[in-house]
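G., the chain you wanted modeled:
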Amino acid sequence: SPSPENSIRSFIDFTNNDEPARERLTLIVPENYEKELFAFTKASVDDYLNSLNIDRTNLKLISSQIFEGFGRHLAEGLGLKSEQIIDVFNEFGDPHTSALNLAYHIGAAKQLYQPGDQLLFVAAGSGLSVACALYTV
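Predicted structure as tokens:
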């Protein structure tokens, strides 16, 4: 389950008189962050889809890109085929909060969405936190 131990933490060292140090944010990423976030995301999204009794056949997954393969592994874990995920990591890395908009835009530009397709947007991040929304084209 999510806990502060699984979250990314950050700080600014205002006690350091070195000018650049005072202008830098230091991030502390727990060793198991990616693994814990992936497991929490998969379980949360699977529960969501099961609660709605969703047919996953025409479902297109648009997700955060936390690490290379995050979306692809999530799709596989949800029983989706590889062509059902729009993965932008190889081209853009982790665009963080822009990942969903970017992937949707690329998919639309490539005409990957057909009438009746369901688009599942999944945002995952520190906290651990997950949000998802389902739309029909």
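The mean pLDDT is 85.

Shout if anything looks off.
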